[in-house]
Specification:
- The protein is an alpha/beta fold.
- The chain folds into two domains: 2-22 and 113-350, ABC transporter type 1, transmembrane domain (ABC transporter transmembrane region fold), CATH 1.20.1560.10; 371-605, P-loop containing nucleotide triphosphate hydrolases (Rossmann fold), CATH 3.40.50.
- Helices cover 64% and strands 10% of the residues.
- Helix 8 (168-190) packs antiparallel against helix 9, helix 10 runs parallel beside helix 14 (309-350) and helix 20 runs parallel beside helix 21 (540-554).
- The radius of gyration is 37 Å and the shape is elongated.
- The relative contact order is 0.08.
Amino acid sequence: MKKIISQLAPYIKKFKKHVFLNVFFNLLYALFSALAFISLMPMLNVLFDKTSVVTEAPIWSGISGIKTYGEQLLNYRVSSYLVEGNAQMALFIVISLVISTFLLKNLFGYLSMQHMMYLKNGVLNNLRKDMYNKIIELPLSFYSKRQKGDVMARILGDISEMQNSFFIVLELVVREPATIIFSLIFMFAFSWKLTLFVLLFIPIAGLLISRLGKSLKSNSLKAQQESGKLISIVEETLTGLKIVKSYNAEPIFRNIFVKSSDEILRLSNKIGLKNNLAGPVSEVLGITTIAVLLWYGGQLVLVDKVIEGTDFLVFMGLSYAILTPAKAISKASYKVKNGMAAADRVFEILHEDDNLADIPNATILNGFNNELAVNNISFKYDNELVLKNFSIKVPKGKTIALVGQSGSGKSTIANLVTRFYDINAGSITVDGNDIKNVTKKSLRGLMGLVTQDSILFNDTIKNNILIGKPNATDEEVMDALKIANAWEFVKDLPKGIETNVGDAGNNFSGGQKQRLSIARAVLKNPPIMILDEATSALDTESERLVQIALENMMKNRTSIVIAHRLSTIQNADEIIVMLKGEIVEQGAHQELLDKNGMYKKLVDMQSFE
């Protein structure tokens, strides 16, 4: 608990004005909560004819005597009306006092809640934004071993759970304890014996409730983890719906979903059973306390006659004022377990180390002048090396192609050059600058990436292309579409570049999506272009159109082409043939054909897998 509060402290400090005002109004609320019951005493005295008769107006003797002055002034006003036989006016005064006290209590309660709302919503908004920033900053390697649904559950579900559960503590931390303290002060003023009687039962209640809540946090954590798994199942099902349907695999995925959903149900019921115990347990303890208090207090009033009946009724009201916040605290202690589990999961992401963070004073690359060099690098994703002692040089303005069978390490080169992953040995340099020593932003600013999967976002064609250059004009967007051979179909759309591409671009064919991806890279106009099997998923006609687009884009540009088909790479300045992470052949197209080696076999198969 202390750890989570300390982690939240920097967020709370930004709203310290609301913290101060919340505490201030909560203290006033607590004071008037106790005074609300004290204000009943003059009314009860009038009703039961117990009002002390004061015939002379009291004299102000300073702040130290304010309590006595207030009581005497009220009794003086009330008793003067009673002496005159005007009981209605006396009753009106004491009832007005009660109403005023309750009105002030609720006004301060409202103001405290307003400032708590600004604090809570502001903190959670900043948490959500920081978490999203962290999610997009973390390297790809972080997500290779995690379910996307789990990450989504943390930024959506867990932060909401913190709002619903954990922040209840902030709401109660001042108000309820202060209400108890003010009530106890007044209770001791009436009868220290009765007050000790009440206090005897509060630790017992706390002990019972703490025992009931011990396992709640672990169950909450399991439920939140399972919720993340459930979101992943839904996300994967929707992404692969064609496969699910074509293989008649609905029962398989349905069973996976039902199993996860049933587990959430089991855990939720387990948590709910314990949550639901908080109310009845505190209720039973409360009524037990009241019953014992009535018995013992009745003795003091009726038998021992050491306390007035009206005083005892007010004391009972103050006892209720203690039991209500005590009950709220006991219920909150259950809910806070859920919030703590959620907070742990949120801060786990926020504190995740970025192992690809820029070094201090990293170099900013302002352009590309000479060459990109991969120098004797080795790399592994897990245990087995994917690249071994691999070296290539890509001079400015040249096109280098990488070919080879699946698993030979071609796409890994694209991941390493763009620094999505860090190499294990060797170096990658741009104009002699090791990319580990330059800012990722300036490095990636020099590069355009077109992948096999045409990644488009559920937005307009224009906004998808503007990702490459946010301040571009409509004319520049259309020029990029023309170079990418995409304007031919975009111009015929009813809304043109304002047409929505749909979820993952599914309003268009594979070839059209790929040409839109190429237009995005064209608009960015980077000096280095990386094509990662950009035509491998296309039919022959689409490939022809995309190939023309690629050739238009690659003119006078430095390019690394990871190839699947012969048409993509035969005009490359140099072709690198890879096998199991190593270079087995390299040279121009005809030169490699003449060698009659592995490249010749791949060409004969017409497939670079």
